[in-house]
Amino acid sequence: MGDVVRLRKVHPCGGYEWEVVRLGADIGIVCGTCSRRVLLARSVFEKRVKAFVSRGPEESASPSQG
Question: How far is CA 63 from CA 59, 60, 66, in A?
Answer without folding.
Answer: 9, 7, 9
